[in-house]
Amino acid sequence: MKNKHIITILSVLVISLVGCKSQSDNCTVKGSIQGVKEGAELELQDAWNSFKVVATASVNNGTFEFHPRFKSRTHVYLYAKDPNDVYANPLDGGQLKDFFLEPGTINVDVHADDEADMYTGATGTVLNDAYHRIQTADDDAKETLWEEAIRDERTSLLAIEYADNESGDLTRASEILNSLSPDQAKDYKKYIATMKKRWARRAKAEERRKIAAEKGMNLLHQQYIDMEYTDVDNNRVSLSSIVANPANHYVILDFWATWCGPCVQSIPTLKDVYDRYHDRGLEIYSVSLDFKTKEWKTFVAENGMTWVNVLGKDRKAVEDYGVESIPTIYLIDCKTGEILVRDAHPDLDSILSNLL
Predict the structure, then answer these.
(1) pLDDT given at position 17
(2) Residue 247 phi/psi, 5° resolution?
(3) What is the pLDDT of residue 217?
(4) How far apart are CA 136 and CA 117, in angstroms?
(5) What integer pLDDT is reported at residue 313 of this predicted model?
(6) How many angstroms from the chain centroid is the CA of residue 309?
(7) Which of 170, 204, 238 is at the close of a domain?
(8) Nearest-CA neighbor of 43 among 12, 73, 66?
(9) Residues 6+ away with beta carbon under 8 Å from 293
(10) Residue 157's closest CA among 73, 230, 63?
């Protein structure tokens, strides 16, 4: 009896080991890489499992190779662990590619200095070849290729990614998910549930943006709404106090942040119009949406932003003015309190030259 139990236990162990191996056997991800520092650490992050790191590798003589282990096919992103190791990545965070893990040899060639290359996927396996064809096709051909892929049982798993791409139309996205087999729907149930929750949040956010946009446009030619925030010298300064100042004829109300690239690019324009028109009665009231007070103050000082700068941490003014993106600039007539201009990048010099 004892020997029989030993044999049974050994049999279970053998079956378990074989089962584990069959879930992720013979998967190699390799390729060449340009625009990334030699020796840089690379990661594969599982997008369908909370971006868990499933494998790491290093750049060696302009190449890399992963041997990831995974339980089932999944969508991954290739990242440089340190974004500073990417010399010319058009997106922050070190993202380089996305593709799918499945058994086989997956070929991934990275050209980090080419923005379009980030969206070309990988090749070498059935799922990745199909995804690559879709990603590199003309926009007019993509829908046909997606439909072909989800009808093919070998590549039908792409329905998850296709549905996510179409999530602006929740009915259509749900129809696409219905093309998954019952086993696929069961195996990826957890991620699909997470994805649907994200869609719902996105739909609510879009509705809020639409309301904000309508509200913002409705403020045009209406009275400005007052606000009061702390400036760089820790004094509370209201917008109404700036508008009511007899020396001011027009006030630029500027919503911005130090982390906003377009906002930072617009600073030289604001400095130019301030230098040109301040003595004629122009003032600027800049509301930063930054969270870090010290960094914000340092940025304002280093960039010579000598007008009124306040920190709008509570976001109430953003809601009051229906600000849906930054930069957003308003021009207020101090005599009437009327909002004359609402735009992201108005031609302030042309407008002010006719007013002052």
Answers:
(1) 34
(2) -75, -15
(3) 65
(4) 9
(5) 82
(6) 27
(7) 204
(8) 66
(9) 311
(10) 73
Beta bridge partners of 177: none
Q: Which residues contact 90 (CB under 8 A, 6 or more apart)?
A: 115, 118
Residue 202 token pair: 């996105």
Q: In this structure, what token pair is assigned to residue 329?
A: 């600039």
E strands of 35-103, at which residues?
Answer: 41-46, 52-58, 63-66, 74-80, 95-101
Tell me the C-alpha distance between 283 and 244, whole Å. Answer: 11
Instruction: Name the amino acid, one letter, at 247.
Output: A
Strand partners, 111: 34
pLDDT at 90 over 50: no
Question: Would the pLDDT of 100 be above 60?
Answer: yes
In this predicted structure, what is the pLDDT of residue 56?
96
User: pLDDT by residue (tens digit) across 17-66?
Assistant: 333 334 445 899 999 999 999 999 999 999 999 899 999 999 999 999 99
Task: Name the phi and psi angles at 104, rounded to 5.
Answer: 125, -175
Domain count, the chain: 2
Q: What angle do CA 268, 92, 115 make, to 5 degrees?
A: 95
Same domain, 161 and 292: no
State what percent of residues in the chain have pLDDT above 90. 72
Please check whether residue 156 is in contact with residue 150, taking contact to mean a CB–CB distance below 8 angstroms: yes
**How big is the CA angle at 33 (ends 30 and 35), to the nearest 5 degrees?**
160
SS3 230: strand
Q: Return the pLDDT at 7.
A: 40
C-alpha span between 57 and 60 (Å, rounded)? 9
Mean pLDDT of 297-317: 92
Kindly report the CATH number assigned to the domain that includes residue 349.
3.40.30.10
Q: Do residue 186 and residue 293 come from a single domain?
A: no
Q: Residues 62, 97: one domain?
A: yes
Range scoring the smallest mean pLDDT among 6-10, 33-37, 308-312: 6-10
Domain containing 131: what range?
A: 20-204
Residue 75 pLDDT > 80: yes
Q: Are 230 and 310 in contact (CB under 8 A)?
A: yes
